[in-house]
Predict the 3D structure of the following.
Amino acid sequence: MKLYYAPGACSLSDHIVLEWIGRPYEAIRVSREELKSPGYLKLNPAGAVPVLEDDGWVLTQNVAILNYLVDRFPESGLGGDGSAKSRAQVNQWLSLANADIHPAFHPFFGSTAYLEDPALIESTKQAAATKLRGLFARIDHQLDGRDWLTGSRSIADAYLFVVTRWAKAMNVDLSGFDNLARFFNAMLGDAGVQRALEQEGLT
Ligand SMILES: N[C@@H](CCC(=O)N[C@@H](CS)C(=O)NCC(=O)O)C(=O)O
């Protein structure tokens, strides 16, 4: 299996999950320029990471990749307890991270640069920070009394770690979210997380 990644990008969630699974894989770093190269665009026309290649079979879209890894390696237990309800709960929190929290960062990543007015662009970042604080409040509430988003460690936790890392880097106000802080510190101490961070040159 090959994972195409960019350091610290959302592909870090797949990288962590591959480490948790513990089976052989190759991590291939893709630069900003390579993302838009004809060769890479053949793999993923969106010019984005992550991409997973398994025996020449190519899969894009993070949620699909993470769920594929769960099904390919069910013994990893990263998709809940095997029941439909438990899997749905994992995907509920994974979706919050991928489809709500992740896009809320877009102004920080330049999506509002077309406005060309620094003050206006800054105000879109402030609005994004406010929205993000509300989303992370929901996460903090869910983590009250829990080590993981659902009953056990799952693909959703790997994604949550990545977006929490971004929030810290962008100085989003996470003050008072003690459950989130506890989760983040536990993840930082996790051997698989450490190996993924190290391979991406992020330690
Ligand atoms: N919907 C896609 C989004 C992937 C995505 O946003 N990837 C970012 C990194 S976190 C990327 O590669 N951006 C580069 C670009 O779009 O130019 C997914 O969930 O896989």
The beta strands are 2-5, 26-29, 51-54, 57-60. The two ends are 24 Å apart (CA to CA). The first helix runs from residue 11 to 21.
